[in-house]
Amino acid sequence: GSLLWAQDLRKVYGPTPALDGASFSVRAGEVVAVMGPSGSGKSTLLHCLAGIISPDSGSIGYGGQDLATMSDARRSALRRSEFGFVFQFGQLVPELTCTENVALPLRLAGVGRKEAQRAALEWMARLEVAEVGDKRPGEVSGGQGQRVAVARALVTSPRVIFADEPTGALDSLNGERVMQLLTDASRETDAAVVLVTHEARVAAYSDREIVVRDGKVRDMAGTV
Ligand code: ADP
Ligand code: ADP
Questions:
Q1: What is the ipTM of this complex?
Q2: Which residues form the signal peptide (predicted)?
Q3: Is 40 close to ligand 2, i.e. is its CB under 6 Å away?
Q4: Of ligand 2's atoms, which has the minimum distance to the CA of residue 38?
Q5: Which of 34, 101, 185, 203 stands 20 to 30 A from 26 (CA)?
């Protein structure tokens, strides 16, 4: 069955709804690409699924729990422990070294310094950025920085990885490396990936593509 699903989400900001009856589901280990034109509601869908914003109506289920009606505190706790995030611009903390950036989610979860550092180094090696561990984000290339951001998203062993245009700021070679490493990691850890992209060559790394148009979802395989 699904690990994370949403049914009939509606979210209105202005005169036209950002989400207008959107449904979605993803299984453990599955990579779903969310495609569609700019302004169609992709980011709003991702933010609802991730519990960052609440839909006006509709239901969101995660492992038998109802995200839509859960308290903010519980939703934040769930987000920190079960979800990982990668954005277009890595959003690394500029004052910290790359290793400290990757270790940060574990430190915030209460993991000791030594253990967090060990796990960070392991993930950086897997993302092929061990050599930039002592540098600050401003001193590494865009591709390296984004792989550090992916390592940071994976270090807590999330069950769901939300990636919003993760390759948007990269050239195609670096973009493909990031996608290969991200999807390899998802396969190894059985993490689901919700990947927002408008690039077909990025979506090609997914198991399934859906298209959002005018706040509604069309599943390319048929029904949602
Ligand atoms: P399958 O094994 O066929 O994938 P799922 O359990 O994943 O079945 O659910 C299929 C669809 O039903 C999901 O995409 C989701 O939208 C919806 N769904 C799943 N669980 C619930 C629920 N508890 N309440 C309402 N809809 C649900
Ligand atoms: P996409 O990610 O597909 O580009 P978005 O989900 O960002 O689309 O936006 C969908 C619609 O909702 C757009 O019309 C956008 O202007 C609007 N929207 C999104 N977020 C906000 C917000 N915080 N305030 C007002 N309007 C918003």
A1: 0.69
A2: none
A3: yes
A4: 4
A5: 101
